[in-house]
Design goal:
Length: 323
């Protein structure tokens, strides 16, 4: 499905296509130099065969190019991307292992292509056009099923020596804690993510079904989902609010640890769990202040919610493709 007008704004010759590749869908959009998305299209992610994913990307790009004159393609992918922004070294939800995605897609579409980590793309979009505007030192934390992140330092996206920096969801916050999908124990995302929210809610409902009655709403404990908990908390259910307080506590603790290393001026919190707004960010701010080293004797970073929503990955990937 494609949406948008049939022609680019007059005089705008700096259009790019951004592509966001996830485990369930591939979404693409035409983005102008001001970060406006002029048209979009999506399709389900095909089988995990790398060639079929590349074909899906190429088909979306071809469809959008029928109406827009674009000069580059940026691809945001949930995985480890090498420093040259060409190869997906590893992707947990797709069968990409040392996959030369840039060259494979460029051959199909006949345009310059760059590949970027999806959280980096989101961070760049918020820095350029969203909640991070005007802040040269920024950390973006995506709180979804797990935790991802992107770092902008002195106005530049920080990728690390090998291109796979900012995997902050896997910093250890509880030695010997919950087993993480990465193989380690006690990673931040096991305590401050959507998956952690569901686990805390299910544990609470098991221990005290009566206290969690409104949150359960007749469901079995194992049927509780993140959106269920969010909806209950937004309706004022004390048990659901307490779940967010716990997740927010751990989120804020991690932000304080990141501040000790990076000293950013602003944290931008995105991802699906951030839709809960102050239910999540309020406790996170409080614990951030409580856990800050030298608190009371140093400036504090702003902690704000992302503003670009689900389009951020597409907008950021497109903007990075122009650079």
């Amino acid at each position: 499905m494609t949406t948008g007008s049939a022609a680019a704004p007059e005089g705008d010759g700096d259009l790019a296509i951004g592509v966001d590749v996830g485990g369930t869908k591939v979404a693409a959009g035409v983005v102008d130099a001001q970060g406006r998305m002029l048209a979009s299209a999506r399709r389900p992610t095909p089988s995990h065969a790398p060639a079929e994913v590349a074909d899906a990307i190429a088909e979306l790009v071809a469809g959008l190019r029928q109406e827009y004159d674009v000069r580059a393609v940026g691809i945001g992918a949930a995985g480890w991307i090498d420093r040259d922004r060409s190869t997906v070294l590893f992707a947990p939800n797709l069968a990409w292992r040392d996959e030369p995605l840039r060259d494979v897609v460029a051959e199909r579409v006949g345009l310059p292509v760059v590949v970027e980590n999806d959280a980096n793309a989101m961070a760049w979009a918020e820095y350029r056009f969203g909640a991070g505007r005007g802040q040269a030192d920024l950390v973006c934390v995506t709180v979804g099923t797990g935790i991802g992140g992107g770092i902008v330092l002195d106005g530049r996206l920080h990728r690390g020596a090998f291109g796979i920096g900012a995997e902050m969801g896997h910093m250890q916050v509880v030695p010997g804690g919950h087993l993480c999908g990465c193989g380690n124990h006690g990673c931040w995302e096991q305590y401050a993510s959507g998956r952690a929210l569901v686990r805390v809610a299910q544990e609470m409902a098991t221990a005290s079904p009566e206290a969690a009655r409104r949150m359960l709403a007749g469901r079995a404990v194992e049927e509780l989902s993140g959106p269920d908990v969010t909806a209950a908390a937004q309706d004022g259910d004390p048990a659901a609010v307490k779940c967010f307080e716990e997740i927010g506590h751990w989120l804020g603790q991690g932000l304080a640890s990141l501040t000790a290393i990076l000293d950013p001026g602003r944290f931008v919190i995105g991802g699906g769990v951030s839709d809960a707004g102050d239910l999540l960010v309020g406790p996170a701010r409080a614990q951030y202040r409580a856990g800050l080293s030298g608190r009371g004797h140093r400036p504090e970073a702003d902690v704000v919610v992302a503003t670009l929503g689900s389009s951020a990955g597409i907008v950021g990937a497109a903007d990075l493709a122009r650079r």
